[in-house]
């Protein structure tokens, strides 16, 4: 299903054919070494899940009704590569897994990090991103959040919390296929850090708080 949705949603390709001539399209963000398709897929999946949560359709194991509470001011994420300096999230995220480190990386200062090591060195960029993002978000369905949306670092849902944190508005990802070690590394970083006791997101009427943070919002879209 994901592959079909991505085919319908992602229309940018790395190689196009113009009057019989093959033209290589330079990725709009080169700092993380991903293709445009991979950027679009990662961003689309993140915002899809955030929409699902905001609109009340995200399954939550600890919720009495089976679904997490709606969010009133869930920001849409942008891809973190707008900065032309060396400090953007795309470069920082790539640097964390460059060279296929054997020790799990820690987040860049000022960012939160989701990381997954996949036991397959031949998996494609997009498939690796899809598997990682689904795994991280899956903590909501397998472990659960419940009615109290305050973050607890020992709750087993840190990856979900990083993805769902309503103060975050940027994300950047990177993938490294490590043939020497037989695995693939996937990392995504978010431009805000959530701490214990903070709310992962504000519950309430969908889009009800967007104007208070200077944002427009679409209901039932939720972002």
UniProtKB/TrEMBL annotation:
Keywords linked to the UniProt accession: Signal
Record-linked InterPro entries: CAP_dom, CAP_sf
Signal peptide: 1-20
Pfam families: CAP
Location of the SCP domain: 37-194
Protein name as annotated: SCP-like protein
Organism: Ancylostoma ceylanicum
